Here is the input.
Amino acid sequence: MLIWLKNYRRDLLAGDIGAGIIVAMMLIPQGMAYAIVAGLPPVTGLYASILPPIAYALFGSSMVQSVGPMAITSLMISTSLAPLAPPGSALSVVLAAQMALIAGALLFVSGIFRLGFVASFLSRPVMSGFTTGAALLITGGQLEPLVGGPLAAMHGPSTIIGLTSLLALWLAKQYLSKGLSALGLSTRLAETLAKLAPVFVLVVATTAVALLDLTQVGVKIVGEIPAGMPAITLLVSGEHWRPLFMPALLIAFMIFLSSQAAAQSLAHRRGERIITNHELLGLGAANLASAVSGGFPVTGSISRSAVNYTAGANTPLASVISAALIVLALSVPTSWVSWLPLPALAATIILAVLGMIDFSTLKDSWRYDRGDAAALLATTAGVLLVGVEQGVILGVVLSLATVIWRASRPHIAVIGRIPGSEHFRNVERHQVETLSDVLAVRVDADLFFGNVDAVVSHLELLLKARTAAHRPTRHVLLVMSAVSLIDTTGLYALREINDSLRAEQITLHLAEVKGPVMDRLQHSDLVGKQLSGQIFLSTADAFRALQGEDSWSI
Amino acid sequence: MLIWLKNYRRDLLAGDIGAGIIVAMMLIPQGMAYAIVAGLPPVTGLYASILPPIAYALFGSSMVQSVGPMAITSLMISTSLAPLAPPGSALSVVLAAQMALIAGALLFVSGIFRLGFVASFLSRPVMSGFTTGAALLITGGQLEPLVGGPLAAMHGPSTIIGLTSLLALWLAKQYLSKGLSALGLSTRLAETLAKLAPVFVLVVATTAVALLDLTQVGVKIVGEIPAGMPAITLLVSGEHWRPLFMPALLIAFMIFLSSQAAAQSLAHRRGERIITNHELLGLGAANLASAVSGGFPVTGSISRSAVNYTAGANTPLASVISAALIVLALSVPTSWVSWLPLPALAATIILAVLGMIDFSTLKDSWRYDRGDAAALLATTAGVLLVGVEQGVILGVVLSLATVIWRASRPHIAVIGRIPGSEHFRNVERHQVETLSDVLAVRVDADLFFGNVDAVVSHLELLLKARTAAHRPTRHVLLVMSAVSLIDTTGLYALREINDSLRAEQITLHLAEVKGPVMDRLQHSDLVGKQLSGQIFLSTADAFRALQGEDSWSI
Here is the structure.
């Protein structure tokens, strides 16, 4: 905790201050924008950007993570609160804080119990499919604000502001960084300044709207932002714990996954290590802090953290400086912000989330593994057609279903001896010799509940085929060289195989059982008591013992 | 389909008729009892025992499965319908049929799409924990009927009937089979007759209640059973599809799992093979048939199927005969059944479900694998404390969580050469020699989304340790002999390892990549384009190529 502060060196300060300023400039419009996406008053997005990054700095392990509002979590907040409170209402603010409280508590407790492995519940393609679906949903939700009304009845001045902003942002994204480099700026500075394009666009749009008083012609603006600090208080609604719990759990999960993705990609670049369970504590603390200071669920943003890193951040001090600057912005008169036109803000949101749409993972997985590609597409479809929360659950189910589906088709090879050697190989791929009454089988998978049915029925098929070919079997040898784990269900399956073989006067032997697997089997009745045959160290030993009167044949 | 009928031989008939009669005798009280557990009128349990077994016979692959009402599915029906309709009401009957319709359609479609692998979503310990929890819940629900009122205000005559029945059933279970054997009956006949003890107890109790007219003193009876056939019609409530869908999905899942367990254990004994996808079709057809004939969700019952088998059933004709006998029972005046006392019926239910409580799996898994034991206990607790439907979901989540949890701690060994050989082994377990600037690592697990984070961070730790020990690394060799699968997430992880090693001037090589894994990697950019090093056939080849100026040292 706070190791970075104890080891703080003066030469890190300049980078942290520079990054702190730049991230604050990003955070002010972004915080308000994502509050709007969440269906909350814009100022709550600023509140959610003050204490959370400071709380994260106390526990988190990433040096450059920028914790605060984020597009996908905001979308999840809006869909979760929609049935409970009208958007922008006082109750919605209370419930959003309450969600942050539940999510924060879940994250913090998960950190204490070291449940970081839950980050491994989603495959990368499924995460990509989820993000793409969420980005499309957010974009869809911003189309009306962009054009100042329903698409069938666009509002002229709003549409002009919205589309001009969108065009300017798109041009900036495509060319600004290169252009600034060409002007002689360092690549890093050019990239950082280019990321501030939304700020410049918003300043221009705000100025135009204010000077021309465009609200008169019906352009909608952010409206009054109350000046001053958020009250530090915990407002909760007594009766909404139950309906908020499941959404808060799902948001907590996505908070963790998003933040992990951001932290890890930057840690790779900085040669640092992320400690997953510290991340959980940091995110938990950040959300608890958000809950008591008028905010809503927050997480590490991959894009903002990248800007923080590129702008030179060395430690979480950069985030603390950003927070201080937002406090400063709230302490001065905030009326200038009130002129910020919603169509321009919608344009910045759309351009930001369209950048999250990821075709390359779809392309890669389509080429590499159709099952993963199908899971990706199904998750996107689920988010779009059913909903973002259901999309999270669907994603987890699909990720895990692919595991069980693959496990349900284990690779099982009948093996024989390569003549003149002690090597044993698949009879279908190599010219090998076998003993007539021994069926030797290598199972190329762990034995666990996901594949035992498949293993048992494969074995039955092999035995039936031998019987049909008039090759009676006296011994079955299971070669366990590729088995690193046998769970309780796998143990039962071995016992059932043993029993049903015994009923047909066939002896079951094992060979090449790995050390840890053997250690565990000693705790069962299979070894020593039930097993009808023996356990051999090597396949060669087993064949020597089982050869008897028999002779090898190809 | 109906292969058993095409190949029917006359000598199978006697066994089928005998079993058909005995199962019908079991099914009449059991059907009514499980209808009561489901919160439905008793006669619906008889309706659910007529068409479903016939429909199952058309598609199913088990020869001795007895399809009909079952305790756990009835419990699930009752908890699902409780918020929607009062127990025993006309609406509850319609909704129960509607659940059977949805569940049947889901099962049938799953069979068409060959989704039989979903049976592998629950580990055996978790299934045991679920069954135990459900059995306890059902027992709890039958205590009031057993004593004719709340436990604090037991009804004397009812309590006497209930407890006497319970005692008689317990004694029969313990001693009847042995006693009949001692009298000279064959073991098989003795066991079969002993299973009919509940029928005898109920006949005695019914006769006593009717002769003594015990309803006058307040003993509750089953009441009138309408004579005649169920109407073949599809009554559905237009508005309840949505709330019924999730419960029906969960019931469909448990229908499939229970039936699989019953079918497989008997198929092992009979030396037959169960075709999982045919089971889905058979169960789907059975539930659709139940839906159109006034029934409710049905499944294969492990205990009743065992009686069917022991009583000599050879083909599904036995079940068809049972169905015909139930039709017959409904065609004659049914007033005698109306005197069946509920306390005695409760006693038969309690004794039946207490038999489902399974301590041996808990004991085995406690000794063998604490993680599995914890999942078992958590599932039981979930069923008891939260609910039976949530218990199913919890069970799936816990089963899959153990997979991911185990995957998140993969076994990774640094390997070296056994001097004077071409064998490579774990440096921690064997006296081996290594090359100073080569880190050779064997990953003993498939590379998939569940463990890539763990693999990557383990590798980072190993590299850091070498750097800290002033042993710079120039080559990392991943030995893939134990990797049978790399999914898309695993592919990305390899790419990231490759890129971050390259940034530190370390070359990444692979060795002993299995055929199917290599085939798939050819479809990616890793092989040929991105990989900084080479792919070697064997670890020995790799070390020969990487040795360079270096020399081996221990």
User: Anything to note?
Assistant: The mean pLDDT of chain A is 90. The first helix of chain A runs from residue 3 to 6. Residues 433 and 554 of chain A are 4 Å apart (CA to CA). DSSP finds 24 helices and ten strands in chain A.
